[in-house]
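ok so I'm stuck.
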Amino acid sequence: MNILVVDPSVSFRRVIQQTLHHQDVEVIEAENGAQAIAQLKKLKPSAICIAHELGDMDSFKFLKLIRLNSILNNIPKFLLTSNAAQTFKREAYDAGFTEVFIKTDFPALQRALHSLLLYATLNIQARILYVEDTQSTADYTSHIMKNAGWEVVHVKSGEAAAQILDEDKKPFDLVVTDLVLEGQVSGIGLINLIRQGRDNIRELPILAVSGWNDLLRQVYVLKHGAGDFIAKPFHETDFLARAINLIMAKRARDELLATQLALYEKANLDALTEVNNRHFLDEFGHKLVKNALSNNESVALMIIDLDHFKQINDQHGHLAGDAILQLVAKTLKQHSHPQDIIARYGGDEFILLLKEQPHGEVLARAQRIRREISHYTQPPTTCTIGVACHDKKIAKQLMELLHTLDPLQPGTIDFKTLFKAADHSLYIAKQAGRNKVCMNNLLEHTEQVY
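replied:
not stuck anymore, here's the structure
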Protein backbone atom coordinates (compact mmCIF):
# COMPACT_ATOMS: atom_id res chain seq x y z
CA MET A 1 0.00 0.00 0.00
CA ASN A 2 1.28 3.49 -0.79
CA ILE A 3 0.03 6.92 0.30
CA LEU A 4 0.86 10.21 -1.43
CA VAL A 5 1.36 13.02 1.12
CA VAL A 6 1.21 16.55 -0.34
CA ASP A 7 2.37 19.20 2.14
CA PRO A 8 4.90 22.09 1.88
CA SER A 9 6.08 21.42 5.46
CA VAL A 10 9.02 18.99 5.59
CA SER A 11 8.56 18.50 9.34
CA PHE A 12 4.89 17.62 8.94
CA ARG A 13 5.68 15.12 6.20
CA ARG A 14 8.21 13.54 8.60
CA VAL A 15 5.53 13.31 11.30
CA ILE A 16 3.34 11.31 8.92
CA GLN A 17 6.31 9.12 7.94
CA GLN A 18 7.06 8.34 11.58
CA THR A 19 3.40 7.72 12.46
CA LEU A 20 3.04 5.16 9.67
CA HIS A 21 6.54 3.72 10.12
CA HIS A 22 5.44 0.39 11.59
CA GLN A 23 2.62 -0.12 9.07
CA ASP A 24 2.95 -1.88 5.75
CA VAL A 25 2.83 1.49 3.98
CA GLU A 26 5.09 3.36 1.59
CA VAL A 27 4.78 7.13 2.01
CA ILE A 28 5.43 9.11 -1.18
CA GLU A 29 6.08 12.83 -0.63
CA ALA A 30 5.32 15.95 -2.66
CA GLU A 31 5.89 19.51 -1.43
CA ASN A 32 3.40 21.30 -3.71
CA GLY A 33 0.49 20.69 -6.06
CA ALA A 34 2.51 20.62 -9.28
CA GLN A 35 4.95 18.07 -7.90
CA ALA A 36 2.05 15.91 -6.71
CA ILE A 37 0.33 16.04 -10.11
CA ALA A 38 3.60 14.95 -11.73
CA GLN A 39 3.78 12.01 -9.29
CA LEU A 40 0.19 11.03 -10.10
CA LYS A 41 1.05 10.71 -13.78
CA LYS A 42 3.47 7.90 -12.87
CA LEU A 43 1.63 6.08 -10.06
CA LYS A 44 -1.79 5.34 -8.62
CA PRO A 45 -1.60 5.58 -4.83
CA SER A 46 -3.92 3.83 -2.40
CA ALA A 47 -4.83 7.21 -0.87
CA ILE A 48 -3.88 10.89 -1.11
CA CYS A 49 -3.25 13.04 2.01
CA ILE A 50 -3.36 16.78 1.13
CA ALA A 51 -2.62 19.97 3.06
CA HIS A 52 -4.98 22.86 2.25
CA GLU A 53 -2.29 25.43 1.45
CA LEU A 54 0.14 23.91 -1.06
CA GLY A 55 2.14 27.04 -1.98
CA ASP A 56 1.34 26.96 -5.70
CA MET A 57 -2.41 26.29 -5.23
CA ASP A 58 -4.93 25.37 -2.57
CA SER A 59 -6.35 21.89 -2.03
CA PHE A 60 -9.68 22.68 -3.75
CA LYS A 61 -7.93 23.66 -6.98
CA PHE A 62 -5.68 20.60 -6.67
CA LEU A 63 -8.76 18.38 -6.35
CA LYS A 64 -10.31 19.89 -9.50
CA LEU A 65 -7.12 19.25 -11.48
CA ILE A 66 -6.74 15.60 -10.50
CA ARG A 67 -10.42 14.97 -11.25
CA LEU A 68 -9.49 15.34 -14.93
CA ASN A 69 -7.86 11.90 -14.56
CA SER A 70 -10.80 9.49 -14.11
CA ILE A 71 -8.46 6.73 -12.89
CA LEU A 72 -8.00 8.71 -9.66
CA ASN A 73 -11.71 9.23 -8.98
CA ASN A 74 -12.10 6.24 -6.66
CA ILE A 75 -8.98 6.92 -4.59
CA PRO A 76 -9.79 8.27 -1.09
CA LYS A 77 -8.61 11.86 -0.60
CA PHE A 78 -7.98 13.30 2.88
CA LEU A 79 -7.61 16.97 3.74
CA LEU A 80 -5.14 17.95 6.50
CA THR A 81 -5.92 21.45 7.75
CA SER A 82 -5.67 23.73 10.80
CA ASN A 83 -9.06 25.27 9.98
CA ALA A 84 -11.62 23.68 12.32
CA ALA A 85 -14.58 25.84 11.23
CA GLN A 86 -17.71 23.89 10.34
CA THR A 87 -18.33 26.02 7.24
CA PHE A 88 -14.85 25.20 5.94
CA LYS A 89 -15.41 21.50 6.58
CA ARG A 90 -18.69 21.60 4.65
CA GLU A 91 -16.92 23.32 1.77
CA ALA A 92 -14.21 20.61 1.81
CA TYR A 93 -16.75 17.79 1.76
CA ASP A 94 -18.65 19.53 -1.06
CA ALA A 95 -15.39 19.78 -3.00
CA GLY A 96 -15.05 16.00 -2.83
CA PHE A 97 -12.74 15.17 0.06
CA THR A 98 -13.38 11.81 1.67
CA GLU A 99 -12.53 13.06 5.17
CA VAL A 100 -11.15 16.19 6.87
CA PHE A 101 -8.52 15.91 9.64
CA ILE A 102 -7.31 18.71 11.95
CA LYS A 103 -3.50 19.12 12.05
CA THR A 104 -3.28 20.82 15.42
CA ASP A 105 -4.77 17.91 17.37
CA PHE A 106 -1.82 15.51 17.15
CA PRO A 107 -3.36 12.51 19.02
CA ALA A 108 -6.47 12.82 16.83
CA LEU A 109 -4.22 13.10 13.78
CA GLN A 110 -2.45 9.87 14.73
CA ARG A 111 -5.80 8.10 15.02
CA ALA A 112 -6.88 9.67 11.76
CA LEU A 113 -3.79 8.45 9.93
CA HIS A 114 -4.41 4.90 11.14
CA SER A 115 -8.05 5.11 10.09
CA LEU A 116 -6.77 6.40 6.75
CA LEU A 117 -5.26 2.96 6.22
CA LEU A 118 -8.72 1.46 6.48
CA TYR A 119 -10.07 3.92 3.94
CA ALA A 120 -7.17 3.13 1.65
CA THR A 121 -8.27 -0.50 1.45
CA LEU A 122 -11.05 0.73 -0.85
CA ASN A 123 -8.39 0.75 -3.53
CA ILE A 124 -8.15 -3.05 -3.65
CA GLN A 125 -7.22 -5.62 -6.24
CA ALA A 126 -10.02 -8.03 -7.05
CA ARG A 127 -11.08 -10.66 -9.60
CA ILE A 128 -14.76 -10.58 -10.53
CA LEU A 129 -16.98 -13.09 -12.34
CA TYR A 130 -19.64 -10.94 -14.04
CA VAL A 131 -22.77 -12.56 -15.50
CA GLU A 132 -24.92 -10.28 -17.68
CA ASP A 133 -26.57 -10.96 -21.05
CA THR A 134 -27.39 -7.34 -22.03
CA GLN A 135 -24.28 -6.04 -23.76
CA SER A 136 -24.83 -2.32 -23.07
CA THR A 137 -25.24 -2.97 -19.33
CA ALA A 138 -22.25 -5.31 -19.38
CA ASP A 139 -20.07 -2.68 -21.07
CA TYR A 140 -21.05 0.02 -18.53
CA THR A 141 -20.60 -2.15 -15.44
CA SER A 142 -17.39 -3.77 -16.70
CA HIS A 143 -15.98 -0.26 -17.29
CA ILE A 144 -16.76 0.69 -13.66
CA MET A 145 -15.01 -2.40 -12.30
CA LYS A 146 -12.02 -2.21 -14.63
CA ASN A 147 -11.63 1.48 -13.82
CA ALA A 148 -11.35 0.44 -10.17
CA GLY A 149 -8.42 -1.77 -11.18
CA TRP A 150 -10.30 -5.06 -11.02
CA GLU A 151 -9.95 -8.04 -13.33
CA VAL A 152 -13.35 -8.83 -14.85
CA VAL A 153 -14.35 -12.14 -16.46
CA HIS A 154 -17.67 -11.55 -18.27
CA VAL A 155 -20.07 -14.27 -19.47
CA LYS A 156 -23.70 -14.10 -20.57
CA SER A 157 -25.27 -17.25 -19.12
CA GLY A 158 -25.50 -19.12 -15.86
CA GLU A 159 -24.22 -22.24 -17.61
CA ALA A 160 -21.04 -20.46 -18.75
CA ALA A 161 -20.51 -19.03 -15.25
CA ALA A 162 -20.93 -22.47 -13.65
CA GLN A 163 -18.42 -23.96 -16.08
CA ILE A 164 -15.84 -21.27 -15.30
CA LEU A 165 -16.30 -21.76 -11.55
CA ASP A 166 -15.86 -25.51 -12.06
CA GLU A 167 -12.80 -25.34 -14.30
CA ASP A 168 -10.95 -22.08 -13.47
CA LYS A 169 -8.15 -22.68 -10.97
CA LYS A 170 -7.67 -18.98 -10.18
CA PRO A 171 -10.11 -17.93 -7.42
CA PHE A 172 -12.67 -15.14 -7.72
CA ASP A 173 -13.32 -12.47 -5.06
CA LEU A 174 -16.91 -11.72 -6.09
CA VAL A 175 -19.70 -12.89 -8.39
CA VAL A 176 -21.93 -10.16 -9.87
CA THR A 177 -24.97 -11.61 -11.62
CA ASP A 178 -28.13 -10.33 -13.21
CA LEU A 179 -31.25 -12.31 -12.33
CA VAL A 180 -32.49 -12.69 -15.91
CA LEU A 181 -29.94 -14.44 -18.12
CA GLU A 182 -29.85 -16.20 -21.45
CA GLY A 183 -29.87 -20.00 -21.27
CA GLN A 184 -31.65 -22.31 -18.85
CA VAL A 185 -29.91 -21.26 -15.61
CA SER A 186 -31.26 -17.99 -14.15
CA GLY A 187 -29.41 -15.74 -11.75
CA ILE A 188 -31.24 -17.38 -8.83
CA GLY A 189 -30.29 -20.79 -10.25
CA LEU A 190 -26.64 -19.74 -10.41
CA ILE A 191 -26.77 -18.51 -6.80
CA ASN A 192 -28.18 -21.90 -5.74
CA LEU A 193 -25.46 -23.75 -7.70
CA ILE A 194 -22.75 -21.72 -5.96
CA ARG A 195 -24.22 -22.14 -2.47
CA GLN A 196 -24.55 -25.90 -2.98
CA GLY A 197 -21.21 -26.26 -4.79
CA ARG A 198 -17.72 -27.29 -3.74
CA ASP A 199 -16.11 -25.87 -0.61
CA ASN A 200 -13.86 -23.51 -2.60
CA ILE A 201 -16.83 -21.64 -4.18
CA ARG A 202 -19.61 -22.13 -1.62
CA GLU A 203 -18.71 -19.00 0.36
CA LEU A 204 -18.13 -16.71 -2.64
CA PRO A 205 -19.86 -13.34 -2.09
CA ILE A 206 -22.60 -12.63 -4.64
CA LEU A 207 -23.98 -9.25 -5.67
CA ALA A 208 -27.35 -9.71 -7.41
CA VAL A 209 -28.47 -7.14 -10.00
CA SER A 210 -32.00 -6.67 -11.27
CA GLY A 211 -34.18 -4.20 -13.18
CA TRP A 212 -36.95 -4.83 -10.64
CA ASN A 213 -36.61 -3.26 -7.23
CA ASP A 214 -39.60 -4.45 -5.22
CA LEU A 215 -39.02 -5.49 -1.60
CA LEU A 216 -40.33 -9.03 -2.09
CA ARG A 217 -37.81 -9.70 -4.87
CA GLN A 218 -34.92 -8.34 -2.79
CA VAL A 219 -35.83 -10.50 0.20
CA TYR A 220 -36.27 -13.54 -2.06
CA VAL A 221 -32.82 -13.08 -3.61
CA LEU A 222 -31.10 -12.50 -0.27
CA LYS A 223 -32.76 -15.57 1.30
CA HIS A 224 -31.44 -17.68 -1.59
CA GLY A 225 -27.87 -16.71 -0.73
CA ALA A 226 -26.97 -13.40 -2.38
CA GLY A 227 -24.87 -11.16 -0.16
CA ASP A 228 -26.41 -7.94 -1.46
CA PHE A 229 -28.85 -6.63 -4.07
CA ILE A 230 -28.71 -3.56 -6.31
CA ALA A 231 -31.36 -2.38 -8.77
CA LYS A 232 -30.67 -1.11 -12.29
CA PRO A 233 -29.96 1.61 -13.21
CA PHE A 234 -27.44 2.20 -10.44
CA HIS A 235 -24.89 4.89 -9.66
CA GLU A 236 -21.21 3.98 -9.98
CA THR A 237 -20.35 4.79 -6.36
CA ASP A 238 -23.34 2.83 -5.01
CA PHE A 239 -22.33 -0.22 -7.03
CA LEU A 240 -18.66 -0.01 -5.97
CA ALA A 241 -19.53 0.52 -2.30
CA ARG A 242 -21.66 -2.65 -2.25
CA ALA A 243 -19.09 -4.68 -4.18
CA ILE A 244 -16.18 -3.52 -1.99
CA ASN A 245 -18.14 -4.27 1.18
CA LEU A 246 -18.76 -7.86 0.02
CA ILE A 247 -15.12 -8.36 -1.04
CA MET A 248 -13.70 -6.99 2.21
CA ALA A 249 -16.15 -9.07 4.29
CA LYS A 250 -14.97 -12.20 2.43
CA ARG A 251 -11.31 -11.35 3.03
CA ALA A 252 -11.96 -10.74 6.72
CA ARG A 253 -13.74 -14.10 6.91
CA ASP A 254 -10.89 -15.82 5.04
CA GLU A 255 -8.35 -14.34 7.47
CA LEU A 256 -10.44 -15.53 10.43
CA LEU A 257 -10.71 -19.04 8.99
CA ALA A 258 -6.97 -19.12 8.29
CA THR A 259 -6.28 -18.07 11.89
CA GLN A 260 -8.68 -20.70 13.22
CA LEU A 261 -7.05 -23.36 11.03
CA ALA A 262 -3.58 -22.38 12.24
CA LEU A 263 -4.73 -22.57 15.87
CA TYR A 264 -6.43 -25.90 15.22
CA GLU A 265 -3.31 -27.36 13.62
CA LYS A 266 -1.13 -26.06 16.44
CA ALA A 267 -3.42 -27.71 18.98
CA ASN A 268 -3.99 -30.99 17.15
CA LEU A 269 -0.94 -31.70 14.98
CA ASP A 270 2.41 -33.06 16.11
CA ALA A 271 4.94 -30.47 14.98
CA LEU A 272 7.69 -32.99 14.17
CA THR A 273 5.79 -35.64 12.21
CA GLU A 274 2.82 -33.54 10.98
CA VAL A 275 0.33 -36.26 11.96
CA ASN A 276 -2.35 -35.86 14.63
CA ASN A 277 -1.23 -35.67 18.23
CA ARG A 278 -2.57 -37.33 21.37
CA HIS A 279 -4.91 -34.41 22.07
CA PHE A 280 -6.62 -34.97 18.71
CA LEU A 281 -6.84 -38.73 19.27
CA ASP A 282 -8.34 -38.29 22.73
CA GLU A 283 -10.97 -35.95 21.30
CA PHE A 284 -11.85 -37.59 17.98
CA GLY A 285 -10.80 -41.24 18.42
CA HIS A 286 -13.79 -41.89 20.67
CA LYS A 287 -16.12 -40.29 18.13
CA LEU A 288 -14.75 -42.36 15.24
CA VAL A 289 -15.18 -45.64 17.12
CA LYS A 290 -18.63 -44.68 18.37
CA ASN A 291 -19.81 -43.66 14.89
CA ALA A 292 -18.41 -46.85 13.35
CA LEU A 293 -20.22 -49.04 15.86
CA SER A 294 -23.49 -47.13 15.55
CA ASN A 295 -23.30 -47.63 11.76
CA ASN A 296 -22.42 -51.34 12.18
CA GLU A 297 -19.01 -50.81 10.58
CA SER A 298 -15.77 -52.63 11.28
CA VAL A 299 -13.16 -50.67 13.22
CA ALA A 300 -9.57 -51.54 14.17
CA LEU A 301 -6.83 -49.96 16.23
CA MET A 302 -3.07 -50.48 15.78
CA ILE A 303 -0.37 -49.45 18.23
CA ILE A 304 2.98 -49.16 16.43
CA ASP A 305 5.87 -49.10 18.92
CA LEU A 306 9.46 -48.52 17.71
CA ASP A 307 11.83 -51.11 19.18
CA HIS A 308 14.61 -49.83 21.47
CA PHE A 309 14.11 -46.27 20.28
CA LYS A 310 16.09 -44.85 23.21
CA GLN A 311 19.18 -46.68 21.92
CA ILE A 312 18.74 -45.02 18.51
CA ASN A 313 18.74 -41.59 20.16
CA ASP A 314 21.69 -42.49 22.42
CA GLN A 315 23.86 -44.05 19.70
CA HIS A 316 22.95 -41.94 16.64
CA GLY A 317 21.69 -38.69 18.16
CA HIS A 318 18.28 -37.09 18.47
CA LEU A 319 18.37 -35.71 14.92
CA ALA A 320 18.58 -39.29 13.62
CA GLY A 321 15.76 -40.26 15.96
CA ASP A 322 13.62 -37.38 14.71
CA ALA A 323 14.29 -38.43 11.11
CA ILE A 324 13.09 -41.98 11.93
CA LEU A 325 9.89 -40.64 13.49
CA GLN A 326 9.21 -38.54 10.40
CA LEU A 327 9.86 -41.55 8.17
CA VAL A 328 7.47 -43.71 10.21
CA ALA A 329 4.76 -41.05 9.90
CA LYS A 330 5.31 -40.98 6.13
CA THR A 331 5.06 -44.78 5.96
CA LEU A 332 1.80 -44.78 7.94
CA LYS A 333 0.33 -42.16 5.59
CA GLN A 334 1.26 -44.29 2.59
CA HIS A 335 -0.54 -47.30 4.09
CA SER A 336 -3.66 -45.43 5.22
CA HIS A 337 -6.98 -44.44 3.71
CA PRO A 338 -8.36 -40.88 3.84
CA GLN A 339 -10.89 -41.77 6.57
CA ASP A 340 -8.23 -43.33 8.84
CA ILE A 341 -6.75 -41.48 11.83
CA ILE A 342 -2.97 -41.43 12.32
CA ALA A 343 -1.62 -40.03 15.57
CA ARG A 344 1.69 -39.84 17.39
CA TYR A 345 0.63 -41.07 20.81
CA GLY A 346 3.92 -40.92 22.70
CA GLY A 347 7.61 -40.36 22.03
CA ASP A 348 8.05 -43.50 19.90
CA GLU A 349 4.48 -44.75 19.68
CA PHE A 350 1.95 -44.22 16.90
CA ILE A 351 -1.75 -45.08 16.69
CA LEU A 352 -3.62 -46.01 13.51
CA LEU A 353 -7.43 -46.15 13.60
CA LEU A 354 -9.08 -47.84 10.61
CA LYS A 355 -12.72 -48.09 9.56
CA GLU A 356 -14.53 -50.58 7.36
CA GLN A 357 -11.65 -53.07 7.08
CA PRO A 358 -12.10 -56.81 7.87
CA HIS A 359 -9.60 -58.29 10.30
CA GLY A 360 -7.72 -60.10 7.51
CA GLU A 361 -6.99 -56.84 5.65
CA VAL A 362 -6.07 -55.10 8.92
CA LEU A 363 -3.54 -57.83 9.69
CA ALA A 364 -2.09 -57.67 6.16
CA ARG A 365 -1.70 -53.89 6.44
CA ALA A 366 0.03 -54.18 9.82
CA GLN A 367 2.46 -56.69 8.33
CA ARG A 368 3.23 -54.38 5.40
CA ILE A 369 3.94 -51.50 7.80
CA ARG A 370 6.19 -53.71 9.98
CA ARG A 371 8.16 -54.98 6.96
CA GLU A 372 8.68 -51.50 5.48
CA ILE A 373 9.94 -50.09 8.78
CA SER A 374 12.31 -53.07 9.16
CA HIS A 375 13.95 -52.01 5.87
CA TYR A 376 15.10 -48.67 7.33
CA THR A 377 18.88 -48.63 7.39
CA GLN A 378 19.87 -45.14 8.56
CA PRO A 379 19.88 -46.26 11.36
CA PRO A 380 18.42 -49.83 11.32
CA THR A 381 14.95 -49.77 12.87
CA THR A 382 12.21 -52.26 13.68
CA CYS A 383 8.79 -51.95 15.25
CA THR A 384 6.30 -54.06 17.16
CA ILE A 385 2.59 -53.73 16.42
CA GLY A 386 -0.38 -54.63 18.58
CA VAL A 387 -3.76 -54.79 16.86
CA ALA A 388 -7.36 -54.96 18.05
CA CYS A 389 -10.06 -55.41 15.45
CA HIS A 390 -13.80 -55.19 15.81
CA ASP A 391 -15.15 -56.99 12.78
CA LYS A 392 -18.88 -56.50 12.54
CA LYS A 393 -19.22 -60.17 11.54
CA ILE A 394 -17.74 -61.41 14.83
CA ALA A 395 -18.79 -58.72 17.32
CA LYS A 396 -20.05 -61.28 19.83
CA GLN A 397 -16.64 -62.94 20.14
CA LEU A 398 -14.97 -59.54 20.66
CA MET A 399 -17.35 -58.78 23.49
CA GLU A 400 -16.38 -62.06 25.15
CA LEU A 401 -12.65 -61.38 24.63
CA LEU A 402 -12.93 -57.94 26.19
CA HIS A 403 -14.66 -59.49 29.18
CA THR A 404 -11.85 -62.04 29.62
CA LEU A 405 -9.27 -59.24 29.54
CA ASP A 406 -11.05 -57.46 32.39
CA PRO A 407 -13.89 -59.44 34.02
CA LEU A 408 -14.78 -56.52 36.29
CA GLN A 409 -15.73 -54.34 33.33
CA PRO A 410 -18.88 -54.90 31.26
CA GLY A 411 -18.23 -56.12 27.74
CA THR A 412 -18.80 -52.85 25.94
CA ILE A 413 -16.94 -51.79 22.82
CA ASP A 414 -15.57 -48.25 22.71
CA PHE A 415 -12.26 -46.53 22.05
CA LYS A 416 -10.95 -47.27 25.54
CA THR A 417 -11.61 -51.02 25.38
CA LEU A 418 -10.33 -51.26 21.80
CA PHE A 419 -7.13 -49.49 22.88
CA LYS A 420 -6.78 -51.83 25.87
CA ALA A 421 -7.10 -54.90 23.62
CA ALA A 422 -4.49 -53.53 21.18
CA ASP A 423 -2.15 -52.68 24.07
CA HIS A 424 -2.50 -56.26 25.37
CA SER A 425 -1.60 -57.55 21.88
CA LEU A 426 1.43 -55.24 21.83
CA TYR A 427 2.61 -56.67 25.16
CA ILE A 428 2.37 -60.24 23.83
CA ALA A 429 4.25 -59.29 20.63
CA LYS A 430 7.07 -57.77 22.70
CA GLN A 431 7.22 -60.86 24.87
CA ALA A 432 7.60 -62.92 21.68
CA GLY A 433 10.80 -61.06 20.75
CA ARG A 434 9.71 -57.73 19.11
CA ASN A 435 9.62 -56.94 15.39
CA LYS A 436 6.32 -58.82 15.42
CA VAL A 437 2.63 -58.21 14.81
CA CYS A 438 0.12 -59.54 17.32
CA MET A 439 -3.56 -59.41 16.59
CA ASN A 440 -6.41 -60.65 18.73
CA ASN A 441 -7.87 -63.72 17.02
CA LEU A 442 -11.46 -63.30 18.03
CA LEU A 443 -12.72 -66.53 16.51
CA GLU A 444 -10.48 -68.56 18.83
CA HIS A 445 -10.57 -66.13 21.76
CA THR A 446 -6.75 -65.92 21.58
CA GLU A 447 -4.10 -63.59 20.28
CA GLN A 448 -1.77 -64.76 17.55
CA VAL A 449 1.76 -63.47 16.93
CA TYR A 450 2.98 -63.16 13.32
